[in-house]
Amino acid sequence: MNNWTKRWDDRYSNEEFAYGEEPNNYLKQQIQKLNSGSILFPAEGEGRNAVFAAKLGWKVSAFDISREGKNKALKLAQANKVLIDYQVGELETLDFKEGQFDAIALIYAHFPAEIKSEIHKQLDQLLRKNGIIIFEAFSKKHLEYLAINDKVGGPKDIESLFSIEEIKNDFPNYEIIELEEKEIQLNEGLFHNGTGSVIRFVGRKN
Question: What integer pLDDT is reported at residue 1 of this predicted model?
Fold first, then answer.
């Protein structure tokens, strides 16, 4: 097991949910504007967002590198009487199909800096034409907030954080419905608490 996987297994192995059991606010707002269909949650951790989508009637797929995350997610799904298809592994080892999904939700999906753009391009292949991406993750400016309060969480290296330009470059073939850098208040479980800076993006694939 590599250090990256171990880090997340350690974080998710506690009884309590690292980022809470409630869905992310931005995901909640945006997904309720869409007709339900099939949706993918990359780097989904303990499943709070996937379970919320399933409760709205979406056919939900999710993946993460953490087996502990999957265990918690399936437990949460069971408690909410919904089913989610949750796989463990790196994206390229999983058997998703081109154009399989109507929506992809990237919620704090901070992949290692050297592969994050590549993963975005792989995910794009899995989204059908006119499909929607919903994205919220920490912006490069977030380091200033972390310096004041490390309880807000997020990566501590600037390369793992996002800029508006990066999103435009990673998803060039999208109609931008919304793209902004924003200061927000986070209150998500044990590890996302306080004021932070995020990039929010909703795009429709051309």
Answer: 63
